[in-house]
Amino acid sequence: MKSIQSNIKKAKKYLDKNHCIAVPTETVYGLAGNAYSDQSAKKIFKLKKRPLNNPLIVHYYDINKLKNDCVINDNFIKLHNKFSPGPITFILKLKKGSKISKFVTNKQKSLAVRFPKHPLFRKLLKSLNYPLAAPSANMSTRLSSVKASDVIEEFGSKIKYVLDGGKCKIGLESTIVSLLDKPTVLRYGGLDISKIKDVLNKKVLVKTTSKKKIAPGQFPLHYSPGIPLRINATKPKKDEAFVLIKKRKTKFKNYYYLSKKNDLQQSAKNLYTILRKIKKDGYKMIAVERIQNKGIGRTINDRLTRASKY
Ligand code: TXA
Ligand code: MG
Prior knowledge:
Elements: H1 2-16, E1 21-23, E2 30-34, H2 38-48, E3 57-59, H3 63-66, E4 70-71, H4 74-83, E5 88-94, H5 102-105, E6 110-114, H6 119-126, E7 132-133, H7 148-155, E8 175-178, E9 184-187, H8 193-200, E10 205-206, E11 229-233, E12 240-244, E13 255-257, H9 264-280, E14 285-289, H10 296-307
Parallel strand pairs: 3-6, 5-8, 9-10, 11-14, 12-13, 12-14
Antiparallel strand pairs: 1-2, 2-7, 3-7, 4-5, 5-6, 8-9
Helix pairs in contact: 9-10
The structure holds threonylcarbamoyladenylate and magnesium ion.
């Protein structure tokens, strides 16, 4: 308990000085900085080598703190009441007079906002008098981090501090839904979109691929392990690592399992860790077995499809 308090204090100290630190969320680790500070926002882009035209998600402790920055609407209230804190990001209209840095939004009039669930991150947010911009803690286009050690692998000593909250429970990024106009899902994620439809009780559009850059996370190449990957494979070719959804009795050195028993939730949680491990084990190519396209399986397939564009 004492160490939790002192870690939060340490994290706050860095953030107050406009440094970037890594923070745990229930989805993936974030690279966080003060969303009201141009200096902090610029540092995030630089560290991630992220193009400045790709806006950042801002994380809030609660809706009260959000009210200074965004215009709230009915669809938002319904979804927020049901799913926040949790793995959903809302695109809302930015309020005139909001203090959000123009670098965070790339001068757009909308803002991506999320209320993360991880208790450590919530404690930290509660202790601050500004929200935190925090994209996933990885180099642009690469795999997100789901453990403190992944973050260190990505950034080494370039970041000041990692608030270690253990392995992320969900392991894939949040679901993004735009509420600027008709509810529109822009990214599959940790929250099943059928649940969003149920709560809104109306049609929800899905625009997760787009030639127009609605969300630059929709760029074809993303979530890449940095080596070629192919999907819907039935067997591995020579020298390929083979990723399977369910453990097999036969032992092959190049077989990697996402779950023991065809469990999609477990597979989501393990996906990035296994892809990282395969690369570390020295493989130059990855084949992945077909994964059921339902629930979070849809998010897994979305990430694998993008990774396969390498
Ligand atoms: O689970 C998550 O969402 C994690 C954790 C750390 O919260 N964050 C995350 O951030 O995945 P990032 O930056 O890797 O992905 C956020 C996506 C980007 O593709 C960005 O283009 C999009 O959200 N985005 C940000 N602001 C937007 C806006 N105003 N309109 C549309 N898309 C936006
Ligand atoms: Mg990302």
